[in-house]
């Protein structure tokens, strides 16, 4: 489980070195995308959204189920916020950062931020405590949903903005480099979707600091490992925002819950 891969700095363009690394491995890690004070502001803003949703007893956002759980003190928390960019101006502002236009180069013409598609901007809040219900996620690819919905497999990248310092023992993202170039058969059957949470001898541990940005290809096999520590040291927050191409398919408040969302109960 290696985490000693190269890290880069995001500039005005994607360099040839960065593009080559991403094309070969299916992921890339940029250091210090946002400042520590911005990280703190984002966490505070998510707490306000959480309070509003708990008070309203909101179940879904644009057809996507909200995942609730328990904090270390037993209080109710939101552990997976979908479309959070539509529920607080700070998250809306974050999506307007001009550096995202640079990231679109990794797909090319027709690429866009999925602020109103898929699950929008998602904020995941993991904590490993006695009553936790969201501590890990089994192996999967993000492209599976297109197949379930009967559409062609469109280009998709998942952009992660990390709000916590993460060491391998804290759990977090694990990826299998190069699997974005696999056949459709291996994309479907290489592992048991979500049920398989076991470590893979070839996996790479993504170990960001708060404020870092990562990108992984939607066809890449990845999982979220459970923290081996408990309590406050296990707390991790990360934002994900898709870069997509293909037909524009926005979600709205009357959007149905998709078939693949049935797998949500397999995420613990």
Question: What is this entry, summarized?
Answer:
With 268 residues, this protein is α+β, with helices and mostly antiparallel strands. It has helices at 16-25, 36-56, 89-95, 99-103, 144-148, 184-189, and strands spanning 27-30, 60-61, 64-65, 67-70, 76-81, 112-113, 122-126, 137-140, 156-162, 172-175, 204-205, 213-217, 222-225, 236-244.
- So what's the overall shape? globular
Helix content: 10-25%
Low-confidence stretches: none
User: How much of the residues is beta strand, in percent?
Assistant: 15-25%
**Tell me about the biggest sheet?**
8 strands, antiparallel
CATH fold-level topology? Jelly Rolls
The CATH class, by name, is Mainly Beta
Order of helices and strands: HEHEEEEHHEEEHEEHEEEE
In terms of quaternary structure, the protein is single chain
Specify the structural class.
alpha+beta
Mean pLDDT across all amino acids: 90
Task: Specify Rg, calculated over alpha carbons.
Answer: 17 Å
Give the name of the CATH architecture: Sandwich
By CATH, the superfamily comes out as q2cbj1_9rhob like domain
What is the first-to-last residue Cα distance?
A: 22 Å
User: How many structural domains are formed by the residues?
Assistant: 1
Number of helix segments? 6
Number of strands: 14
